[in-house]
């Protein structure tokens, strides 16, 4: 068994995902130590947006479906981190803690609610067919 397979079995993450985690942590620590956390956060969010758009485009092309699936895994994994970076950047502009809390709850609960609401019409259509 390859060492990369052993790492994936033990951690549940591929070596690519682990190295991405370490790279993101290193970038955030570097930004914090050099008083450039806002700039680093904006670059990371821009990269997340680019990966998300690329994921949407590659999932539509049959030959690139494997790449799209990998990018979907990446965007799903890093959604929470991107949401926290957005809250950090918003906290620099908005100084109302209650408003920031509401925005944070909407960002974190939004995808779950959309997912639940999207499944309801599909379930209703299946019941009608039965």
Note down, in words, how this protein is organized.
By secondary structure, the protein is mostly helical. It contains six helices and no strands.
Count of DSSP H/I helices: 6
Broad structural category:
mainly alpha
**Low-pLDDT residue spans:** none
Question: What's the overall geometry?
Answer: globular
Strand percent estimate: under 5%
How do the SSEs run, as a string of H and E? Answer: HHHHHH
**Biggest sheet record:** none
Question: What integer is the average pLDDT?
Answer: 87
Taking Cα atoms only, what radius of gyration do you get, to the nearest Å? 19 Å
Helix fraction by DSSP (H/I, runs of at least 4) = over 70%
Tell me how many strands there are. Answer: 0
How far apart, in Å, are the first and last alpha carbons?
47 Å
Keywords summarizing the entry:
130 residues, mainly alpha
Summarize the topology.
Layout: H1 3-11, H2 15-33, H3 37-58, H4 65-77, H5 79-91, H6 97-129
Helix pairs in contact: 2-3, 3-4, 3-5, 5-6
Q: How do you describe this structure in short?
A:
With 130 residues, the chain is mostly helical.
